[in-house]
Amino acid sequence: MTTTSGTTSVGPLLRSWRQRRHLSQLELGTEAGVTTRHLSFVETGRARPSREMVLHLAEVLEVPLRERNHLLVAAGFAPTFRESSLGDPSFEAVRTALDQVLAGHEPYPAIVVDRQWQLVASNLAALVLVEDVDAELLEPPVNVLRVSLHPKGLAPRIRNLGQWSDHVLDRLRRQALITGDADLAALEEELRGLVRAQGVDDSRLGGEHSGDVAIPLLLESAKGPLALITTIATFGTALDITLAELALEAFLPADAATTEILREYAADLA
User: Do 251 and 228 meet the contact criterion of CB atoms below 8 Å apart?
Assistant: First the structure.
């Protein structure tokens, strides 16, 4: 669901995406190779854009595939991008590739999530992230951001909860703005409430890592404190909505002690 899906005319939809990207009509027209006059006519409904024009403007505006379909329907055209199930036979190669990538990250935790941050897959090493997490939070569908900031989830184990929650919520806010997804905006508000309820303040920031080049996740574990940094990878050439919305997040050790502890966990699981 998006904040723009209730609008039926393609002109206002395109205008909302342009404004979300903080572009003037002149800037968009220049980048897209379209006159400002024609762009104005399209946005006000005085001109009906072709299918090719809708897709071209959507590409320039970096509109997600799901919303590109909305734009096409609003313009009177059939959707272009399909949305498959992960269980679809056409996804066999993708599933195999994801399994290989997840296994290749061990002994370091790695997970795959969808656009709503619901857990799709994980490797065995990711079990370290859910130690002592309330079983109710691990009932499918599992929202990994909710698990991370919930008082019955990872939050009590995160030593720099203020710093980490700021990072997570800022990333979620930017994602909601970029995609126009009202569900993500609602999730952000929910998680902000969870953080506020836990009385997070600056005193919980991880000062010992203040000189790092990336914000670490400082997490207590049964075998000792972990310092993790994250990377996120996506399928940049996807033409399927489901595939385009998948993201793989890997947690890498930020120090030698964390590397050793993760290896110990891996040995226990072997």
Answer: yes
Query: What is the pLDDT at residue 257?
Result: 97
The answer, yes or no, to whether the previous bond of 141 is cis (omega within 30 of 0) is yes
Q: CA geometry: angle at 83 spanning 80 and 84, to 5°? A: 135
Q: How far is CA 243 from the centre of its chain?
A: 13
Q: Is the pLDDT of residue 91 over 50?
A: yes
- Put simply, whether the predicted model's pTM sits higher than 0.70 gets the answer yes
Spatial CA neighbour of 216 closest among 160, 132, 153? 160
225-262 burial by CB neighbour count: b if 16+ within 10 A, else e?
A: ebbbbbeeeebeeeebbbbbbbbbbbbbbbbeebbebb
**Is the per-residue pLDDT at 186 higher than 90?**
yes
Cβ atoms of 148 and 155 within 8 Å: the answer is yes
- Separation CA 227–CA 159 (nearest Å): 10
